[in-house]
Write a structure and sequence with these properties.
The complex is a heterotrimer of chains A (113), B (115) and C (519). The relative contact order of chain A is 0.04. Chain A has 2 domains: 64 residues, no CATH class; 36 residues. Chain A has a two-stranded antiparallel sheet. Chain A has 4 helices and 2 strands. With 113 residues, chain A is mostly helical. Chain A is flat and about 80 Å long. The two termini of chain A are 46 Å apart. Chain B is mainly α and 115 residues long. Chain B has one domain: Helix Hairpins (Orthogonal Bundle), CATH 1.10.287.3510. The longest helix of chain B is centred in the C-terminal third of the chain and has 32 residues. In chain C, 74% of the residues lie in helices and 2% in strands. Chain C has a two-stranded antiparallel sheet with strand order 1-2. In chain C, helix 5 runs antiparallel to helix 6, helix 12 packs antiparallel against helix 13 and helix 13 crosses helix 18. Chain C is globular and about 75 Å long. Classes of the chains: A mainly alpha (113), B mainly alpha (115), C mainly alpha (519). Chains A and C meet through helix 1, helix 3 and helix 4 of A and helix 6, helix 8, helix 11, helix 13 and helix 15 of C.
Chain lengths: 113, 115, 519
Amino acid sequence: MMLGTVQSGFGYWNVYAWIIFFALAAALVFYFRSAGRSDYKAGTYQDEIFYGGNPVPKDGDEIAVPASSAYWGFTEALSPFYKLLLSLHTGIASDYVGYLVVTTALISALIVL
Amino acid sequence: MTGNLPFVVVGLLFAIGMALILFDKNLIKIAIGVSMVEAATNLFLIVLGYRTGGSIPVYTLAGEVKRMVLPTPQALTLTAIVIGVATTALMLSLIMLLYRYYGTLDVREIRRLRG
Amino acid sequence: MNWQIHLPALLIAVPLLGAFAAPAFANRRLRDVWFTVMIAATTVIAFLLWRRVGAEGIVVYVMGGENWHLTLPSGMRLPIRIIMEVDAFSAFMALSGSIVSFAGAIFSLRFLDRTTGGEKFVALYFLLTAGMLGMETTGDLFNFFVFLEIASVASYGLIAFWRNTPEAIEASFKYMLLSTIAALMVLIGVGILYGRYGALNMAAIAKSMQLGLPEKVALALFVAALAMKCGAVPLHMWVPDAYSQAPAGISCFLVSVSQASLYGLFRISFSVYGRALDTPAVAWIIIVFGILSMFIAVVMAVIQKEVKRLMAYHAVSQTGYMLLGVGVGLLALAHPQAMSEYGFTAMQGGIFHIINHAMYKGLLFLTAGSIFYASGTLDLNRLGGLARNMPYTTVMFVVSAAAIAGLPPVNGFVSKLLVYESSFAVHPILTVMALVTSILTLASFVKVFQSAFLGPARARFSEVREVPRSMLVGMTVLLVAILWLSFMPTWSLSRLVGPAAQALVDQAGYIEAVMGSGL
């Protein structure tokens, strides 16, 4: 058996092949980076952030998208499903005990029958 | 039929305790319900080890008897009671703190963590 | 006589000694030393025990007997003493759990400096360790219940450790209510089995197991209660509450503690019931628990706004992979051909995922703890740009997030691959759900990484510095474990995971170690 190869019964996977692949990709990235221009003038407008022509705000908060806006489309598309899920997570302890009892009853029925 | 009577009591105690936990809104009563379910479990264990007409399962105290009740369930019950005392005490102290912070004992209103 | 014979007893005794001596250490320096030394000793013992089990097979230890290996004294038919039975699966779980407990302890040292009552924290932490290791090494059902309760009571205390925050008390109360009822269900199940067989030893019960109505009811109680304790959907509601409110070192360790309940579930369904199970119902229940946990929890995780709560939902979701993998193995248990074709691979995947998850989820909780320690908040809407201030934490986060999302070449990928390729043989829909879950996992960790670490520097975090060195050391322990598991997949599978899966399947061997003869 080759070093680092995992047989899954239907195929195999080798960790070192992946590491070599990542090393090659990293080498390419560094090559492209080093091929970039380095003759800009530091301290002038050339190394300033371009913010649509406006002055860049001091605090990052003003130009950052809040995390609760992430995946807005996804959550909006699934909003009926999310409404159902959130209505199950009531936060009331006796509801949670109820789920436990119902699940136990269900499992008993499935196993005994 | 009387032989099964203790198991009926176990079932009743368990059902009453569970009903309290599920349907009562007061935290103290929920704690009482948990204690009742614990009592039902302990009674169940004791009844399992009972033999009709059996004596205490200690050789030096039992005297001239043929039958003894089973000692293992009694040991189990003793352990379970000790654990039950610990959880009940901790649960009551948590309820006390909850009352201090939330100003209520209604289980429906203690739900800042949800979703 | 070789002192290593007593390793199973030491594994419990050392953390218990640590727990009961801890309140005496009021001095901060002494307390830290005691905490570190004893938890390191526990880890070393777990490692030695694992090595011994690997070399010699199942290790049996009789508590309180004249002789440590005399399981059936003077021709008794049933074992009467408390027996610890450590097979490769137990040793594997104990090793994984104790590594996480070591990392969590080192991480917690500096956390404790900010509060009073640190010695009580240390005592409860050791009790939690003892409870977890006891659950994983005992061969006795009632003992399992006792250790389950020890671990539970210790964790109630630790979850409510910040007792001046109402949410922590609330989380602890909810967990306690559910967990007490679940533990009583376990006790009733133990009582039923005792009533039928007059024994509490798992091997003794397994030897004479005849599946009737009482056994089925007991099994249903065990499955439901332990599924609740390991946080399977729809019984997972306590997990996000408890994990997000506990101190970070505890959340990290609680992952391993709930895996001890997972261990109990697998031990009871494989070693106690095993071949006596004539219906596939139990296996399908476990698989359905797995699918529901994977999918619903990850969907809930995507919308979370608090780092630790998000990670806690992922803990539920990752537990689903273990349930799915081992459930497929249980489904194939009665059919030797299916077992060799895909069942064993599935079990290897599920069990490998246990240790992988313990390591990377532990590390993720520790990075969340670092973020909180350094910046004072865990709200994703307020965090941002921390990669500038906390470079080491960022690296740790990236590695563990890649691992949990199953990005090759990190370890989460290997175990997920094994689960995918074997569950496919049962039904393709299982694999599809597992893949979708993996994608959503990646999506939500991209969200955390982007909102907490990337982005422009925030003015309010300009004073934030990297966390103290001891916290970094605790995180490095888990990082090294992740990298080791990633870069040595063949070693991990053949030495660590393979024997564990084999031990779980080999019910006859488990019985023989105590009863002297197999099925």
